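Design request, tokens follow.
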């Protein structure tokens, strides 16, 4: 959802840009990656980007952004209730609360509803050409991405067609908007649902990935600073997520005071988690049903009809 730049047009390269692109191909070829098969594909093209303006958007300001709107916060609260199992599991292992994680996913991808439409191979090449000051950085991203795409040993899931591996204008991928260097670092371990695979388009694995990343960024020592470093390009990023997560926490506290609805049967339990056979859901539910503390009522509410 963060947009530093907007798509302008598919462009013809100038002589200097052609030279830069040839240099990129040569550098990749030295590392064993001949991308000519992709360049010759009719789906490949170089895009030029334009900055939206000098002023950065303050996502915590409701006059500038949708992010802090009441309806957005309520949808995020619904998201927490629907995915509490996975979010809580990540919190127990890494520290970030369901509110922190949800606020981050909301700002990055609208909770996974918009993960980007650029083929990553196109995004990296386009930014490489359009931003001379970032060419070494995006050469590395392109090389790391090709490493990941061609390596099947780490069980990191991508679509088989390279042009279907899509993300942001800068090549960030998945619900958590991960860059290739971070996917190489954490991807093999980011198996939140225990199926032996890492698919960053699924919430359990994206949450686990984010947990590892925030661990390294020092979340336990300074949560707000770690969140800001997660996406350091935007100066308002950390403050916006902090404000959003605090507001979301208040909503969840308010919701938790609503008496749980009576559960007569559990016909829809297999649909709650993507892999219910790996979890004894009924055993998880029984203590919740008989214990009075308010913090447990979320489990009851998200199963019963409102």
């Amino acid at each position: 959802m963060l947009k530093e730049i907007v798509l302008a047009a598919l462009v013809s390269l100038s002589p200097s840009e052609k030279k830069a692109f040839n240099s990129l191909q040569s550098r990749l070829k030295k590392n064993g990656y001949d991308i000519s098969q992709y360049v010759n594909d009719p789906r490949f093209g170089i895009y030029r980007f334009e900055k939206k303006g000098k002023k950065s958007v303050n996502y915590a300001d409701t006059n500038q952004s949708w992010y802090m709107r009441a309806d957005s916060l309520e949808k995020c609260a619904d998201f927490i209730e629907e995915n509490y199992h996975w979010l809580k599991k990540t919190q127990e292992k890494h520290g970030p609360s369901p509110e922190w994680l949800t606020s981050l996913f909301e700002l990055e991808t609208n909770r996974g509803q918009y993960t980007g439409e650029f083929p990553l191979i196109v995004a990296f090449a386009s930014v490489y050409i359009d931003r001379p000051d970032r060419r070494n950085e995006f050469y590395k991203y392109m090389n790391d991405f090709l490493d990941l795409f061609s390596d099947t040993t780490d069980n990191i899931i991508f679509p088989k067609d390279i042009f279907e591996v899509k993300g942001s204008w800068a090549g960030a991928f998945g619900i958590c908007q991960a860059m290739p260097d971070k996917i190489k670092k954490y991807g093999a371990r980011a198996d939140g649902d225990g199926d032996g695979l890492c698919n960053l388009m699924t919430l359990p694995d994206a949450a686990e990935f984010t947990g590892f990343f925030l661990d390294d960024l020092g979340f336990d020592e300074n949560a707000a600073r770690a969140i800001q470093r997660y996406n350091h390009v935007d100066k308002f990023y950390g403050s916006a997520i902090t404000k959003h997560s605090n507001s979301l926490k208040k909503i969840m506290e308010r919701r938790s005071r609503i008496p749980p609805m009576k559960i007569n049967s559990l016909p829809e339990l297999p649909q709650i988690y993507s892999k219910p056979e790996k979890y004894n859901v009924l055993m998880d539910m029984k203590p919740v049903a008989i214990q009075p503390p308010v913090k447990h009522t979320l489990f009851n509410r998200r199963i019963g009809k409102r």
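Comment from the thread starter after seeing the answer: thanks! The two ends are 30 Å apart (CA to CA).
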